[in-house]
Task: structure prediction
Amino acid sequence: MPLLEVKNIKKNFGKTEVLKGISFSLSEGEVISIIGSSGSGKTTLLRCLNFLETPDKGTISVNDEVLFDGENIKNLKENKIRENRLHFGLVFQSFNLFPQYNVLDNVTLAPKLLKKGTNEEIENNARALIEKVGLLEKIDSYPCQLSGGQQQRVAIARALAMNPDILCFDEPTSALDPELTGEVLRVIKGLKESGSTMIVVTHEMEFAKNVSDKIIFMADGVIEEMGTPEQIFENPQSEKTRHFLQNSLEKL
Result:
């Protein structure tokens, strides 16, 4: 049984069709990378999964529980949306850390607000996660005192602190230079090795090829092609996929 099942998700902004019927499944411990050109719908899909956008149609299920059904949008209450979000952790491309809080407080804020344990339990868990992303020596530092790569690693620890079923990344290295990109990608690879279930929207083709169990190539609001890294990178069936990969690899 898949951990996540997405069926026929559609999303319009005004008259513009951004997602035209997206369907895929994700098993526990699996990593899916979503690739594609800007404007293909990748980020909108991720925002729909995290309930930051409301799809117009389709269903989203986690652990066989239907979290969203486009046929019953009117019955989806705000408290249910907040509850649904807890299944997903989202790491943004722009970090989105709270500048007035240090590293420890950024990681513990949400669990404390939602009373995910005693303060001592939450802080001990946060320290372990901060150590996991290699930043224990920066635990009292503020975001302005950290590099972009360090800020993104704090954002990863913050997402993990809520113990989500699925960790989602929206272009986690797009705001970083190559040296800092490497440190963030190493953390994500470590999460895969520890069995985390992840969806990664990325433009890092080598990362997608080496870390993913499955690749989704999106174009014009649809899944143009989906398969293993070997299938997508070595034997793409779609002309759009071939053209995208050729252009992407030429830039490396």
